[in-house]
Amino acid sequence: MSICLVEDASDDTYVLDILDIALxxxxxxxxxxLRWDMEARLREAVDLTRVTCEVIMKIGPVKMLDRTYRLPExxxxxxxxxxxxxxxPAGPWKQTWHLRVPRAVPVARHRxxxxxxxxxxxxxxxxxxxxxxxxxxxxxxxxxxxxxxxxEHLSWSL
Length: 158
What we know:
mainly beta
């Protein structure tokens, strides 16, 4: 099952024109993998290794995180990496990432604001991502994956 939980807050002035973002599974779980499929169009060539991303994570009115990463560093923190041409030309651009949602994220309803800029300061993309990691939507699972120290390896072939 796939559902789009991501709001594209970019406009026509942004370098990346996002056509579609899909996340699977529909209800991401702490400590598990999440597949992120993005289909977009680059309005100009970009050095993806030098794109900076400002990540703001809020729980209610409280800002839990406000940090700037390079795009490769942000993906690495989530267990993924850029693939394909790291300096793609203008035109169609697709990426699929298999991200790991950290276990250490507080159990709550989160709002993540992700703003990215190119190396020369141009707006690259703007995303708003609401995620609900409350117990209400994620009942305690049973099995070895919930034992401390268990490192499950999930592979996706969607």
